[in-house]
Amino acid sequence: MGDAAIFADEIFGFHVQQAAEKPSKAWLALQGETYPLSHDLAALLDMLSVGGADVARFDGLVDYTRYAVRLRYSAADPGAGLVDRAGAIEQVEASLVTVRRRLAGTGTG
Fold first, then answer.
1. Mutual orientation of helices 9-30 and 85-106 as an angle, nearest 10°?
2. Is the Cβ–Cβ distance between 82 and 64 less than 8 Å?
3. Any domain includes 78
4. I want to staple 48 with a disulfide (CB 3.0 to 4.6 A). Which of 3, 11, 14, 53 is the partner?
5. Which pLDDT band, with edges at 50, 70 and 90, does 77 fall under?
6. Domain span at residue 41?
7. Start-to-end CA span in the chain (Å)
8. What's the CA angle centered on 107, arms 22 and 46, to 5 degrees?
9. What is the CA radius of gyration of the chain?
């Protein structure tokens, strides 16, 4: 999905938002937290931070909240800024690695 000529920013952004949301919620569950029914990545990262997690490296994902369900099928605001596809993919992959390591450490997965 790194090719903007094939995948619109709205579609790419939606998938980044989802790919960031799910591990964040898994991480919260590993911390013993009940995660909210929310697509707000800032709120999820704040909850992780309050629980002691170092999430600063994932701050760039917060901007993808705007691509959650409401923007999936409509055009984004052209003034909203450029989509950093490589950066987003890197941060999502790092998030997945972090959560997988935590899961491995619990003996539950």
1. 20
2. no
3. yes
4. 53
5. low
6. 9-106
7. 28
8. 35
9. 14
Angstrom distance (rounded) from CA 100 to CA 59:
19
How many structural domains comprise the chain? 1
Residue 72 near residue 17 (C-beta atoms within 8 A): no
**Angle at alpha carbon of residue 10, lines to 47 and 36, rounded to 5°:** 20
Average pLDDT for the chain: 86
**Within-domain flag for 4:** no
Q: Output the pTM of the full model.
A: 0.79
- Whether residue 3 is contained in a domain is answered as no
User: With DSSP H G I counted as helix, E B as strand and the rest as coil, what are the percentages for the chain, rounded to 5?
Assistant: 65, 0, 35
